[in-house]
Amino acid sequence: MDQDIEILLGASGKNKGSIGTFNFKDFEIVTDSTPRISVQAGGDIILGNPATGDVKVVVLGKLGVNVSNPDPRSALHVNGALKFNDKIHLNSSEVPTSGAYNEGDIVWNSFPAPGKFVGWVCTKSGNPGIWNGFGRIE
Questions:
Q1: In angstroms, rounded to a whole number, what is the distance separating the alpha carbons of residues 92 and 108?
Q2: How many helices, marked H, and strands, marked E, lie in the chain?
Q3: CA-to-CA distance for 119 and 136, rounded, in angstroms?
Q4: Which residue has the higher pLDDT, 30 or 21?
Q5: Residues 33/49, Cβ–Cβ less than 8 Å
Q6: Cβ distance 21 to 27 under 8 Å?
Q7: How far apart are alpha carbons 96 and 56 in whole angstroms?
Q8: Cα–Cα dist 12/20, whole Å
Q9: Would the pLDDT of 116 be above 60?
Q10: Cα torsion for 38, 39, 40, 41, to the nearest 10°?
Q11: I want to staple 64 with a disulfide (CB 3.0 to 4.6 A). Which of 43, 47, 70, 131 is the partner?
């Protein structure tokens, strides 16, 4: 124990190794005395260090967010809304009727069919904004 922090290094179960803190304390992985990966006491994980600037994170393989088994056809599998270049991408069967949206936000049609749109794009910011269909399916 050092400064009221007990560091664990050992097994956490059958065929499982463990490293971390025993008590409710943050845990950091450091190089050059600089925290590079931080696991907060509540479980949040921070990659990088705000004091040292940008950090490059490389994922070799599939990455899933809110999925247990990423789709093998995709490098990135996200279950839920996605923000890309400051534009929200949602999935719904209709345009939003409430909530704040910005010009360029997109709702993908969860039930595409002939004569319907692939999705809708917000063309004027607001609550809920003005939405126009795109990609009419023939």
A1: 6
A2: 0, 12
A3: 9
A4: 30
A5: no
A6: yes
A7: 36
A8: 11
A9: yes
A10: -140
A11: 70
Which of 37, 13, 16, 40 has the alpha carbon at shortest distance from 26? 40
Q: Are 118 and 135 in contact (CB under 8 A)?
A: yes
pLDDT above 80: residue 75: yes
Q: Which residue has the tokens 């093998």?
A: 72
What one-letter code names the amino acid at 66?
N
* Phi, psi of 36, rounded to the nearest 5 degrees: -110, -35
Alpha-carbon torsion, ordered 40, 45, 48, 54, to 10 deg: -130
Q: Please list, residue by residue across 38-66, b when 16 or more beta carbons sit within 10 angstroms of its beta carbon and e when fewer do.
A: bbeeeeeeeeeeeeeeeeeeeeeeeeeee
pLDDT tens digits along 36-50: 999 999 999 999 988
Give me 11's structure tokens.
């097994």
pLDDT surpasses 90 at 53: no
